[in-house]
Amino acid sequence: MTNRSLRTGTVLLGAGLLLLSATACTTTNPFGPTTDTVSSTSGKTWLTEDGVLRTELKPSAFVTFNQENLRRDIAAGQGEYLTSMSVLLGVPVDRQPAFFSAMQARAAEPAVTTAAPDVLLAALQQTASPYLP
Predict the structure, then answer these.
(1) Residue 53 burial by Cβ neighbours in a 10 Å radius (0-12, 13-18, 19+)
(2) What are the extents of the domains in the chain?
(3) Cα–chain-centroid distance for residue 35?
(4) Which of 28, 39, 117, 128 registers the highest number of CB atoms within 10 A of its CB?
């Protein structure tokens, strides 16, 4: 066997071992498990163990995802988004028309027209409180 053949064989053997080791390697997740991807910075999770949105967080989620439609319904004093929000807040059906009118009276307030979702939710909760059982 010549020196050249020995070098070629060694290079091929090294490449083969490298290929085998590369395909057999495993990696670990350096960031930890990602099973709870919907959590807040306060340490509360948005979901139950069953993966259902927690009841107490439904109003916040609803306002966050539907704020523009909700603002439109508030200005009109009626609509499916305002009705759904009143149900989430616990306003009884027989008191909803009064709640809708009260919210419509606040439609021009900055807390309703331009505020962040948490401020809008606070305005909705404050307005709903006299109508709750």
Answers:
(1) middle
(2) 55-131
(3) 14
(4) 128
